C-alpha cells in the first residue's frame, strides 16, 4: 500500500518545519508504517484540494485521505491497532489531551512571536507574500514588529518552557519510559522552533535537546 504525507516545506524543500506535520511523521514512525513525503508550500492549495480543505498535514493511505494531525493520529490508532498504541492505555489518554491543550494555548503562542520573521525568510517569494498578508491579518502586527521585540519574546518563551524542562529532568519522556503521541505533540513544536530559528533557542545538550534526540533515536530517525 502506498502511503504519502503532504509536508510543509520552505523554498529549500529539505526544510520541513510544520509542527503538525512533525506530529504525524512521528505517529507514523511509532506505528512502524512506511511512508513518503511530498513537499508542499502555503500557496499550493490546489495540490491538496482533493482533501476537501487547505492545510497540511494530509495523509494519503492507499485509497483513504485524512487531514488534520489529530484526526490522522486517531485514524492510525483505529486502523492499525496491532501496532504500538499512540496514546497508551486508556487511563493515560487524558495526558495527551492536556499536552495538546498546553502546547496549542501556551507553547505555540510563546513561539509565534519568536519565529514569524524567521519563517518568512525561509519561504518562496510567493509564499512570503501570502505569509506576510495572512499573519498581519491574523495577529494585527507586522513581521518587523515581531522581529523588533524578539528578545522579550524569547524571555517569555523560556518561562513558558519551565514546566516542560522540569518534567523531563525527572523522567525520560512525557509519556514515561517511552515516547507516545504526547511527546510527538511537544516535539513538533520544538522541532518547528529549532528548524526555523535564526538563533539558538534550546540549551546545547540541555534537557530539551537531549529529549528531542532521544525521541528521534527511539524511532530510528536520528
Automatic annotation (TrEMBL):
Keywords: Transferase. PROSITE patterns: GST_NTER. GO terms for molecular function: glutathione transferase activity; maleylacetoacetate isomerase activity. It comes from Acidocella aromatica. This is Glutathione S-transferase. SUPFAM superfamilies: GST C-terminal domain-like, Thioredoxin-like. InterPro entries: Glutathione-S-Trfase_C_sf (IPR036282), Glutathione_S-Trfase (IPR040079), Glutathione_S-Trfase_N (IPR004045), GST_UstS-like_C (IPR054416), Thioredoxin-like_sf (IPR036249). The keyword ATP-binding does not apply. Transmembrane segments: none annotated. Coiled coil: none annotated. The keyword Transferase applies. GO terms for biological process: glutathione metabolic process; L-phenylalanine catabolic process. The lineage of its organism: Bacteria, Pseudomonadati, Pseudomonadota, Alphaproteobacteria, Acetobacterales. Residues 8-84 form the GST N-terminal domain.
Amino acid at each position: 500500500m502506498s502511503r504519502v504525507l503532504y509536508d510543509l516545506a520552505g523554498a529549500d524543500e529539505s526544510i520541513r518545519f510544520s509542527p503538525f506535520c512533525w506530529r504525524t511523521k512521528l505517529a507514523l514512525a511509532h506505528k512502524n508504517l512506511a511512508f513518503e513525503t511530498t513537499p508542499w508550500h502555503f500557496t499550493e492549495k490546489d495540490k491538496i484540494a482533493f482533501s476537501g480543505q487547505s492545510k497540511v498535514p494530509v495523509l494519503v493511505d492507499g485509497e483513504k485521505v485524512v487531514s488534520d494531525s489529530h484526526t490522522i493520529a486517531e485514524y492510525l490508532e483505529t486502523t492499525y491497532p496491532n501496532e504500538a498504541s499512540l496514546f497508551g492505555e486508556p487511563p493515560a489518554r487524558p495526558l495527551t489531551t492536556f499536552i495538546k491543550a498546553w502546547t496549542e494555548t501556551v507553547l505555540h503562542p510563546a513561539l509565534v512571536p519568536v519565529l514569524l520573521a524567521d519563517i518568512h525568510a525561509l519561504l518562496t517569494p510567493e509564499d512570503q507574500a501570502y505569509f506576510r498578508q495572512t499573519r498581519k491579518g491574523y495577529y494585527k502586527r507586522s513581521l518587523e514588529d515581531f522581529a523588533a521585540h524578539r528578545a522579550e519574546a524569547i524571555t517569555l518563551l523560556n518561562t513558558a518552557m519551565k514546566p516542560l524542562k522540569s518534567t523531563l529532568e525527572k523522567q525520560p519522556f512525557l509519556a514515561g519510559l517511552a515516547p507516545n503521541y504526547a511527546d510527538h505533540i511537544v516535539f513538533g513544536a520544538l522541532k518547528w522552533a529549532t528548524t526555523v530559528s535564526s538563533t539558538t533557542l534550546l540549551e546545547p545538550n540541555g534537557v530539551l535537546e537531549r529529549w528531542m534526540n532521544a525521541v528521534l533515536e527511539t524511532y530510528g530517525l536520528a
